[in-house]
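Bumping with the actual sequence this time:
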Amino acid sequence: MLPDPGVCPSLAKDRAPRCALESFCRRIPVSAHLAGVGLLIAFLSTLGCFVRAPGMSMNMAEGDTLISVDYEIFGKVQGVFFRKYTQAEGKKLGLVGWVQNTDQGTVQGQLQGPISEVRHMQEWLETRGSPKSHIDRANFRNEKVIVKLDYSDFQIVK
């Protein structure tokens, strides 16, 4: 017998429940289970956690959750086209935000976009940068989940 299409197939009616709640779960539509998972992922992402169900890629788990994060990069990052490469990498990843030199010899900015793409950009800022740069360290702060993007492009601020 095929399971009800609106009910999770792993909760088929022809096998014994594995836990006390399973008989209750059989009556909950799959869409309700998925909505609960989405809410849990959104909540945990505000704490900086990563959640992935078995067999689910990070992109599937993260969905369209947007985040914003400020950054500052230390090292030989001025006079080596770091801002130009940062802008290009950000645009390539579909991110928005800005980048600028500071009077202290660092580069700072803000990234906004889907969690997975922001994570790629953070790794790029920490480890790669422009070809002639030398990154000593990267600081990331003020990370938060956002509902919409504050920028429409990735800008170099002079």
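The tokens above came from a reply further down the thread. Residues 9-62 form one domain.
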